Amino acid sequence: MEPTRVVVTGLGAVSPLGLGADSMWAGLREGRCGIGRIKAFDPDGLPCELAGEVPDYSIQDHVPRKYRKSCKLMCRDIELAVIAARLAVVASGLVTKGIDPDNVGVDPARMAVNMGAGIISCEMPELAPAVAVSTADGRFDVRRWGREGLDHVTPLWLLKYLPNMLACHIGIIHDAQGPSNTITCAEASAHLAIAEAAQIIARGDSDIALAGAAEAKVNPALMVRQILLKRTNNTCNDRPSEACRPFDANASGSVFGEGGGVLVIESLDHARRRGAKILAELVGIGQSHSLGPAYAQLEPDGQAVRIAIEKALDDADIDARRLDLLIPHGTGVPQDDLAEARGVEAALGEVIDRVPVWPTKSMLSTTGAASGALDAIAAVLAITTGTIPAARNFEKAADGCRLRIATESVRRPIEHAICCSYTHGGQTAALVLKRYDEGATE
């Protein structure tokens, strides 16, 4: 029996470059930067005052009228995921309950939802009153928290911040009754969620899946954590567009942000039956785990990155010589970028000097769990348009980095593209996407 082929038919992106995959792609092609001074809260006094924030929106405009009361139970991460999912479904041409309840064109039982999520940090005003009454003489008293503090927390508070609620709201809105799962593996979450969704389809448990991730890192607590871990760029507050410089000799840290990305993936047979426009084919999946000696940093030799890339290439049944594009994780943190570069070099071998490498976070910022979904969307659009945009903020490679960073925009056929991600907890993942060939049989 021939293996089930899995294809991409819809893209939905919410990023610092705009709402919609087309807006994000236009920004990437133009080399625009979505990083600026933080607007969500007053960053004055923080060493890093920058973030990648999505444009203003109203969540009410992106959910069915009958579902709008549920918006009060959505944190920022959930909102980003819900918007990205709707954009992806609309782009795919699918008609779900969330698009038109009177003309549903899918079998709900055959539609899955797989989402990645990160650390969902509570908005401070929601917990501050409870913490205040639980504090005495400058010290938090857990007994007072139990006796008095919890009375100041709304009973529905937790429903806003459970990581599985991204997939939950998407599933309810679109009436997706197939397998649903949430993966919380930080920056690797999206690639892992997309991979699992593809495996669900490949084994015949669903025909369609909404897969991706969302995360909002523009939060005082999350920002302070990254600053304390020395991952942020603290020198470019007056030059935000120059702050994030993946793999560059002058890189001095990352800039964090928010975003959401969802891909509609289907079995090839299902996509053909409904006459869908097929954007790309997902042909390779690689996953690994290898924890470095210092938890706060990627392991120096990038071993986990190497393993994930090698597994993805093996799953796609190709070798590195057939790669036309690699989108790395590339955050602008010097020691992590160098480790990733070493892992990529070990996986690609002699091909390292030929494969174009295009980092995106200099324009999109580091969006946590969402970053892998946005990169996968960028890879699909690179394939469909035959374009590799120029990397931003790259002038000279950091010592020890052999990656061939794309410094000029290039138009060329892209047959295979790979994107990869890693976490400081050791999880890594890679996906190989292929230009769809109508005549291919395997």
TrEMBL record:
GO terms for molecular function: 3-oxoacyl-[acyl-carrier-protein] synthase activity. Keywords: Acyltransferase, Transferase. GO terms for cellular component: cytosol. One of its GO terms (biological process) is fatty acid biosynthetic process. It comes from the Bacteria. Its EC number is 2.3.1.-. SMART domains: PKS_KS (SM00825). The keyword Transferase applies. Residues 3-435 form the Ketosynthase family 3 (KS3) domain. The keyword Cell division does not apply. Belongs to the thiolase-like superfamily. Beta-ketoacyl-ACP synthases family. This is Beta-ketoacyl-[acyl-carrier-protein] synthase family protein. The lineage of its organism: Bacteria, Pseudomonadati, Planctomycetota, Phycisphaerae, Sedimentisphaerales.
